[in-house]
Amino acid sequence: MSEQEPARRETVLVTGGAGFLASWCAVRLLQAGYDVRATLRDLRRADEVRGMVGQEIDPDARLSFSQADLTRDEGWAAAAAGCRYVLHVASPMSYEDIKGPEAIAVATDGALRVLRASAEAGVRRVVMTSSTAAARPAAGQAEVDERAWTAVGDALDNPMEIYSQSKTRAERGAWEYVARLGGAMELATILPGLIQGPVLGADYALSVEIIAQLLKGRPPFYPTPGIELVDVRDLADLHVLAMVGPAAAGERFLATTAYTTFADMARILREHFGARALAIPVLEDPSGPAAVEFTSAKARDRLGWRTRSIAETIVETADSLLSAGGVELKPAD
Predict the structure, then answer these.
(1) 0.90 cut: is pTM over it?
(2) What span, in angstroms and rounded, lies between the C-alpha atoms of 315 and 319?
């Protein structure tokens, strides 16, 4: 990421500050010279988040916290006050969060709470985290770009579909709200694939559980043989680029590095850990039609976004999980 030194000390609000992506966004913003205000549902986690961010940069007084919850109006006006930009990263994501259709209302209503508070505070631009789940391809489509939208439907019989609908409806609602403002505030949305990368604490994201399971000797329980991945550090870079880049206003950006099978992930880990990797499962390469490609050419061409290799991301995710202490390499039977 090119350096984005602000002309003056500007404050950026990051929602869901204790989250995997949000904590890395805070790191990148602090490294670029911004002040960061992070929202937390429970301010008792402030020291924990400060410690997470402190693994990469000393946050000193430039990192502050504000209490706010996506399900409540209270706190959002104070959180957004005085902020130049907002990164709306918070969303229902844990397995418990997405077990029921109420997750859709949390995502959609929560996004509108953030946007209303941002508009009232005079925020210049909001960057909102959506998902490739909101850009589902049409039947037979081999390549997907930002023009694709997941159809809004009522089939909410599994967590994956609930998550997809929550992201789709929240993003559509955000675009509709900002359009009604008539140019008073800008919006950009980022649509990442499955987020991997180094964890900053033991309370890591559900997405990272795939690598954790492989380290424990278990094949990932997932409805597809692979998925498009993105490194959390690269994704945080893209949020900052979309926050300040003139070409980002009013645009969606897919954010993926490459489609990767779970067999490839396991192979990368076995090569990295060598003799310690005896329990990492040997998975078969998938057969059948080629995977759909989610292209991130727009982010690369318009914003100069660059990404790490998939191998680097997977290895550094695994190393961080082992260092954090929540995961151990399972001995071979």
Answers:
(1) yes
(2) 6
